[in-house]
Every structure is written in structure tokens, then in C-alpha cells.
Amino acid sequence: MPEIPDPIKEQCEKKGGLKGIEKALPSKKNIKSNSQIFKALAEPMRLKILLAVIEQPLCACLIREMLGISDSKLSYHLTVLKDADLIEGSKQASWIIYGPTKLGTKMADIIDKF
Amino acid sequence: MPEIPDPIKEQCEKKGGLKGIEKALPSKKNIKSNSQIFKALAEPMRLKILLAVIEQPLCACLIREMLGISDSKLSYHLTVLKDADLIEGSKQASWIIYGPTKLGTKMADIIDKF
DNA sequence: TTGCGGTTTCAAAAAAATTTGAAATGGTGT
DNA sequence: ACACCATTTCAAATTTTTTTGAAACCGCAA
């Protein structure tokens, strides 16, 4: 191990060294799951979709119209949000109406706090 | 406009149509800035780095040792976190010690709530 | 000045994510 | 059954992000 500045080194040792720090971190599963949520929200268009369907549940065709993108592009982005459990769709006749999940609403609250 | 299911259509109109919904969303700037933060946290390794430097400020060499990755790979990921204003580095002799920003700490609190 | 250690930068390669347009699927109406 | 509409799936193309290893930079010590 290289010679680290003393205060850093001592504090690190106090926490059990690198092993100790790593042990204090959340589980790999938790980190993975959180990063999936963040990834879904990492694209402005997907953020916009989530916030819009919180404002008002919308079918894909209205979302598509609002954003001005292709059907398949929209479908891709909706799937990312769905897979991250941020939105859910419910079938009404020919239409699928998308709205937020609890988690989706909670994440939007967080965005409001910034 | 295609014929949308009536309840959806009416609620939508009540909110000023698609234009009204879009107007109710945060600014493009705000969405962009938020998505940058989410993107920085979208990669498990970067999440881990943030949580570790919250636990204990660390120099790059200790982070590198903990994660077992190359110097340049680490540098890249640290830069993503820095650019998103989640971590900051301060120079101590040969070392740069990384710790969380206020925003970084706040985001970590959020992770704890899930 | 030179040598060394810590860290970043760089450009090309590799990997991952996204976009695209066509095809497929499912439901409704005639 | 056929036609139409809403939406997803698919595979290839495109774009973006990440990784890689070498070079460069910076500061400290002799």
C-alpha cells in the first residue's frame, strides 16, 4: 500500500481499512437495482415522459404526439421506464394508457426537491 | 388527432391539451441538469465510488485499490461524478482526496430511502 | 536537474445504448 | 374475412459511452 496522507490513512484504518469501507456499502443487488432506476431517468426524454404521465395518464399516441418522435423510438423508451418500474401501462380498447408507479411518483418528488 | 378514450381525452383537455401538459413540466434546462445527475449514478461502479467517499474521503489510489480497476478507468468515472457535481477533489501533496458534495450526499440519502 | 509517485489526458478500440424502418401483433368495426 | 388503428418487436445501422494502454502533467524529494 502506498504511503497515504496520515489523517486519511488513520481514518481509513479506523473504519477497518478498505475492506471495512466496502462492507459498509449497500449490497451489490441494491446498488444494481438503484443504478437501473437512475439509468432509466438519465435520458431527458424519459424524464419528460415520466413527468408528463404523472401530470396526466396518457396513451402512447399522445405521448408520441407531444414529443414528436417515431412509434418505435417511443416504444423503446417506454420499455426502459417500464423495466425500471417507474411507469405502468393499462389496456383500454385499442389504447395503452401509461401512468406512474409509486416509485415513479416518488422519484418525481425527488426531482422537485432539487 | 386520433379518437382517444373519452375519460383520457377529457382530462387531457381539462389540462389544456398536450400543450398544457408540456407547459406544466419543468424547464428543459432543469430536466437536462437532473438527467446528468441520474446518468452519473446510472453505473453501479460510480454509485459505489460516491457511497465509499461519503463513508470516508479517499484518494484516487485507494479507490482504485478498493475497486480493482485501472488508473485511467477510474479517472474517467471520477470525472463523470465531478462533472455532475456529486463529488469534489482536494489536493493534498501528491494526492487528490475525493469527498462528496452536498448534492452527492443528498443523492445518497435518497438511495438509503429505497 | 533528475527520478519517482499520483493522477489525468489522449486517441483508438471495444462495448453499450439508441435509432430506424419494416414487419408483426392485437383489438375493433364493417 | 378484410381493413384499419394502436403498439410492440425485430435486426441492422448509428450514435454514445466506456475501456484501454501509452503519454503527459504535476508536485515532492534528493
SSE layout:
The structure is a homodimer.
Chain A: H1 6-14, H2 17-23, H3 28-40, H4 44-55, E1 58-59, H5 60-67, H6 71-83, E2 87-92, E3 95-100, H7 102-112
Antiparallel strand pairs in A: 1-3, 2-3
The first copy, chain A, binds a DNA duplex (30 and 30 nucleotides) through helix 6.
Defining traits:
homodimer; alpha+beta; Arc Repressor Mutant, subunit A; 2 domains; 7 helices; 3 strands; DNA-binding
Characterize the structure shown:
Two copies of one chain form a homodimer. Chain A has a three-stranded antiparallel sheet. Chain A has helices at residues 6-14, 17-23, 28-40, 44-55, 60-67, 71-83, 102-112; strands at residues 58-59, 87-92, 95-100. Chain A has seven helices and three strands. The mean pLDDT of chain A is 89. At the A-B interface, helix 1, helix 2, helix 3, helix 4 and strand 1 of A face helix 1, helix 2, helix 3, helix 4 and strand 1 of B.
Q: Please state the CA-atom Rg of chain A, rounded to the nearest Å.
A: 21 Å
What is the top-level CATH class of the largest domain in chain A? Answer: Mainly Alpha
Tally of individual domains of chain A: 2
The tally of helices of chain A reads 7
Largest interface: A-B, 48 and 47 residues
What is the strand tally of chain A? Answer: 3
Give a concise summary.
Chain A is α+β, with helices and mostly antiparallel strands.
